Amino acid sequence: MSGGVDSSVAAALLHEQGYELVGVTLHLWDAEGEQKVGRCCAPEDRDDARRVCDHLGIPHYVLDEREAFREHVVTPFAREYLEGRTPAPCVHCNRTVKLQKLVALADSFGATHVATGHYARLVREAGDLRLLRGRDREKDQSYFLFGVSRSILERLLFPLGELPNKEATRAEGRRLGVPNADKGDSQELCFVPDGDIGGFLSRAGHAPRPGRIEDETGAVVGEHSGIERFTVGQRKGLGLGGGPVRYVLRIVPDENRVVVGGEDGLFTRRLRAADASWFGSLPDAPFEASIRIRHRHEPAPARIVPHESGFEAEFLEPQRAVTPGQAAVLYRGDEVVGGGFIV
Amino acid sequence: MIYLDYHAAAPVIPEALAAMDVARQEAWANPSSVHRAGRAAKRTLERAREQVAQALGAAPGDVILTGGGTEAVNLFLGSGPVRHVVTTEIEHPAVARSVDRLEASGVSVTRLPLPGGRAPSASTLEDSLRGPETWVAVQWINHETGTIVPVHDYAQVTRARGACLFVDATQAFGKLPFSVEELGADALALASHKMGGPAGAGALWVRRGIEVAPILAGGGQERGRRPGTPDVVALAGFGAAAEVLPRRLEALPRIAMLRDRLEVALRDLGAVVNGSEGERIGTALNVSVPGARGEVLVAALDLEGVCASSGAACSSGLSEPSPVLRAMYPEEPWRASSALRLSLGPELDEAAIDAAIAILERVIRRASTALT
C-alpha cells in the first residue's frame, strides 16, 4: 500500500470480498527537501496508507527496503543513463525488488497471496497462468510486469485489472469510503518526483561530461552537457538554436556523442532485445506477436526470432524511437507472452 | 493479546486508573487558581508529588513534575553550565540527542562503550572525569537490552571528584528498589508509563542546591522550573502507581523467571542474546535471530497476537536498526537488524509466556524458510 488511490482501492475491494488482509507499505526511498510531498515514500503517503488500513480495520506495517531498492533499481538506473541508455526502472523494481519482497513477507506472515493496485489481469485457468493487459488501455501496467517470475506471479492478485478506467477506480473508492479516493496521481518516477533526471544524477555525485552533438554525416552541430540528459526521440532541450527540427537519433556513449537528425531517422523496423523472459517455455521458432517498445505505445505487430537470451524482431511498420534500455514487451492480443530489454 | 513490550509502555494499573477517574471529576481546574476548584486540583497535584517523592525517599520540594521522561531529561541536560559530559554509547535518544546538542554548543563529550553489554567500571568512569563542571549522564537500565550500569559505584566516584551525576532512571523506577540518598546521584529522570502510570507524566528529582533552568518560557509553575498548566489527571495516575511501587518491585523475581523461560526457548530456536556479557534486569530479553529481520518478526508476531518490538522506532513509523546494538556489537551489524526485544511485567503469568513461546516457534520457523 503506497498511500495512493490504486492500492487503497485494491485493498478496499478485497476487503469487501471477505479476504483477511494485512496492509504493507514498503519504504523504498527517502524523498529529499521539497520533494517530500506527494509521491510514494513521503511520510504523508505512509500516513495515507495507514488511514486506509484504519478505515478497513486491518493491520498496517511499514517495512524498510531502501537498501534493496537502491542496489537493484536506483544504482542501475544511474548507470544506464551514463551508458547512454534510457532505463525502465519500474520494470526492474517489479522484477527484482517490490514483488519479491512482498511475497517473502507474505511467507513470513503466513499469507497466501499478495495483492497490489497494478492495472493488469492474471487469469488462472486449468492450471495455467496468463498475464493480460488491464481493461483500461490507458492505465495498463502489464508492461512493467513482464519480467516477474512465474513463482511470484502465482502469488499475486490484481483487483483493479477488470476496472474499465481510473474514474471507475475512484468511484469504487468513494463507494467504499476510502479516505484518499480523490488523491492526485503522479506521473513521475517515485524516486525522481520532480522529473529532473539531470538534477538527480548530479545530486548522486555524477559529474556531467560535456561532448559533441553531431548530425548523421558526422558534422558537429552543437555541444551537450552530458549524454544522460538525452533520450532517443527527444526534440526539446537540444540547445541547437534555430534551423531544421532535429531529434536525438542515437547516443554513442563510448565517444560521449549524441547524434541528431530529421524525424525519418527515428523510424526503424528492427529491434534487438537481450535479457529476455518468456511466459511459458522458450519458443523454438520465429513467431508473430505485437511489441510494445515503451509504456505509452500501442503494441505494434512484428515477427520475432527468439534466441539464447534475447530476440530479434522485425516490425511490419517502421516504429518511432526504438530506445536502448527500454523494455520491449511482447503481446498476443491482450496476453503478455514475454519481453526483453532493447539493446 | 500477549503483551511483551513493557519497556515501551506498561499497562496502566487499576489503582492509577481509579485515581485518574477521580481526578477527572474533581481536579480538572487550574491548580494555580485561588478558588476552591483550583485548590482541589492543587491538592491532587501535590498528593501526586508526595507519592512520587515518597517512592524515591525524597523531599517533595525536590521533585519537579513534568509531562514525561524525555521532558525531565531535557530539563536537566538543557541547563548549564557544563564543560564536559561523560555518557555512554547506548543511551536513550532523549539523553543522546540532548548530549549531542551540548556538544554542538562547544561542550566536550566522552561516550563510553559497552561491548557486548559490559558496563564501564567505576574506575573507567573515573578516568574520564575532569572535575567540577563535568556531568555524568547515564541510563541506569537500558531500554533495549536491560543492561544495568553500576550507578551506585559511579555516584561514589563522581561525588569524590566533584562531578555531577544525572541518572536516566526511567526504566529503573519500578524495577529496582532504591532511595535517592543511598543512590547518591544528583538528579534522576522518571517516566510514568514505564511503571504502571499513564503516559504524559514524569518527574525530575534534583538534589537540593542544584539549579535547574526552565526549558519552556511561561508562567511560574513548579517554582518556575516547569511552566504550563500540568496534566493533573495523568500525574494523579503517576502518583497512584508510585504509591504501590513496593508491590511492583516484589514481582521482579517471578518476572525474571518468566524471562529466563523465554530466553531458553529462544536460544533453542537459534537466537542469540544481546547484552549477555553484562548484568541485565530481569524484565528484558533482547535477542537476534540469524537470517530474520526484526521488523518482519515484530509484524508477524503482531498478526498472531504477540506485542513485541525490535530496534528503536521513530515517530514516522519507520524502524532504524538499533543504535544500542550497533554500539554493543560494532563488528556484527546483523544483530541490530535481526533484533527482537521482549520485555515483561507483573501482569504476565506462565500461561501467557508458554503461549508466546508456541507462537515464537511458529513465527521464527516461518521466517527462516521464507524467501528473502
Beta content of chain B: 5-15%
* Cα-to-Cα separation, first versus last residue of chain B: 28 Å
**Roughly how much helix do the residues of chain B carry, as a percent range?**
40-55%
| Rg value of chain B | 21 Å
Q: pLDDT under 50 segments of chain A (min length 5)?
A: none
Task: Give the overall silhouette of chain A.
Answer: globular
Protein chain pair with the most extensive contact, residues per chain: A-B, 18 and 19 residues
Which stretches of chain B of 5+ consecutive residues score pLDDT under 50?
none
- What sequence of helices (H) and strands (E) makes up the elements of chain A? HEHEHHEEEHEHHEEEEEEEEEE
| Biggest pleated sheet of chain B | 7 strands, mixed
Question: Tally the helices of chain A: what do you get?
Answer: 7
Quaternary state of this entry equals: heterodimer
Give the C-alpha Rg of chain A. Answer: 21 Å
Brief descriptors of the model:
heterodimer; A: 343 residues; alpha+beta; six-stranded antiparallel β-barrel; four-stranded mixed sheet; 7 helices; 29% strand; globular; B: 372 residues; alpha/beta; seven-stranded mixed sheet; three-stranded antiparallel sheet; 14 helices; 12 strands
Structure description:
The complex is a heterodimer of chains A (343) and B (372). Chain A is globular, with a radius of gyration of 21 Å. Chain A is an alpha+beta fold. Chain A contains seven helices and 16 strands. Chain B has 372 residues and is of the alpha/beta class. Chain B is 41% helix and 14% strand. Chain B has helices spanning 14-26, 36-56, 69-77, 93-104, 122-128, 151-161, 180-183, 232-243, 245-250, 252-268, 294-303, 323-328, 333-337, 350-369, and strands spanning 2-3, 63-66, 84-88, 108-112, 134-139, 164-168, 187-191, 202-206, 272-273, 284-288, 306-307, 339-343. Chain B is globular, with a radius of gyration of 21 Å. The two termini of chain B are 28 Å apart. The A-B interface holds A 22, 27, 43, 46, 50, 59, 61-64, 100, 103-105, 107-110 and B 293, 295-297, 299-300, 302-303, 316-319, 363, 366-367, 369-372.
